[in-house]
Amino acid sequence: MQGEAGQVRALRTRVYVDGYNFYYGALKGTRYKWLDLYALFKHQILPSILVEQDGLPAQSELLPEAIQYFTATIIESAAKAADSVSSQARYHTALRKLHDGTIRIVEGYYSLTKARAPAIDDADPKRPPRECDRVPIWKLEEKQSDVNLALHAYHDAMTGQIDQAVIVSNDTDLVPALRMIRENTGAMIGLVVPTRDHERRPNADLTKYCHWVRHHLKEQELAASQLPRVVPGGRSPTIKPDSWYPHPDLFQRALQLATKVRGGRSAAFRWFEQPSPYLGNARPLDLMETREGALRVVAYMEDWLAQQPGQEP
Fold first, then answer.
1. Best exposed site among 43, 97, 101, 199 by fewest CB in 10 Å?
2. Contact 20, 168 (CB under 8 A)
3. Residue 98 has pLDDT above 80, yes or no
4. Which positions ≥6 away from 3 have C-beta within 8 Å?
5. CB neighbours of 303 closer than 8 A, spacing ≥ 6?
6. Pairing state of beta strands 103-118 and 134-143?
7. Do 96 and 30 fall into the same domain?
8. Contact criterion met (CB below 8 Å) for 194 and 37
């Protein structure tokens, strides 16, 4: 979208998120999985990018269905945790409730098959695969997500729906799509590498087709872009999974203790979210961001219960 000379131009923008690449690059093992994707890109990532078009400054203008999120439902038999499937479903529901018409979730699927593959030789890890014994394995693959992302981005650029495609991935399978967008359309391409603090370098085959590259996500950006703990709507609210809090083992212990004293989960969370004079006027929920703080909260409640059973901390 062109503007008058001297004015900032608005670039009609959509963000195409490779969910698998994003999770394993930026979220796995962190406290940030309950992530508000729309808030992250609208308020954190895109405002940080300085863009020019035809020598004039430009800024991103997010379209309807601005965030295109490409993912697949976890297969329960291959999940790493008992609540992985239900937690993912809660997250998708929360995004749809909070950002109806703004975030579009496009689902592929996982394929789980039996296969045989060369096993790494423990005695000689550098031994080439062709010389290693083949062993039976379960082969888990995500299907269609990268193809869906490529097709949606290319379609939107070819049909003139967008002035800018922001690709959130570091997967070289997307190189042909980026090359075709660059060669056949006038759309700008931005690349956001889903990693924290330069843990992964941008792939050179991707970056050569991009107008700009964001090399990493900052911890404070992820922290500032979390969904509310309770997302209202529908027949019942959608609540952040307990296992998605920092240090879930200690969080579960703290929640059990607080629930016992306060008489219910809702009351326990109300206590978590209020400053406590017995904890230096800090909120227990804030203290539990660190392992040391979580241990302090648990120790305080255990000591209280031991000395004053039945009283409120």
1. 101
2. no
3. yes
4. 9, 10, 56
5. none
6. antiparallel
7. yes
8. no
Domain boundary (230, 262, 289) is at 230
Tell me how far apart the alpha carbons of residues 97 and 39 are, in angstroms, rounded to a whole number. 14
Report the pLDDT value the prediction gives residue 310, as an integer from 0 to 100: 57
Higher-pLDDT residue of 136 and 166 is 166
Of the candidates 188, 205, 230, which is a domain's last residue? 230
Per-residue tokens: 267:
């009351």
Based on the fold, state whether residues 36 and 93 are members of the same structural domain. yes
- pTM for this structure? 0.89
Angle between helices 145-158 and 175-184 (to 10 degrees): 0
Q: Inform me whether the pLDDT recorded for 245 exceeds 60.
A: yes
- Clarify whether residues 64 and 190 are in a common domain: yes
Residues 6 or more apart whose Cβ sits within 8 Å of residue 28: none
Say whether both 254 and 206 belong to one domain: no
CATH of the domain at 162: 3.40.50.1010
Average pLDDT over residues 263-271: 93
Q: Is the dihedral of CA 14, 19, 25, 28 positive or negative?
A: positive
Say which residue the tokens 């909070």 belong to: 98
Q: Are 105 and 96 in contact (CB under 8 A)?
A: yes
Domain that holds residue 168: 9-112+139-230
**Domain presence at residue 128:** no
Per the model's pLDDT, the better-predicted residue between 74 and 37 turns out to be 37
pLDDT above 70 as % of the chain: 96
Q: pLDDT tens across 277-290, in order?
A: 999 999 999 999 99
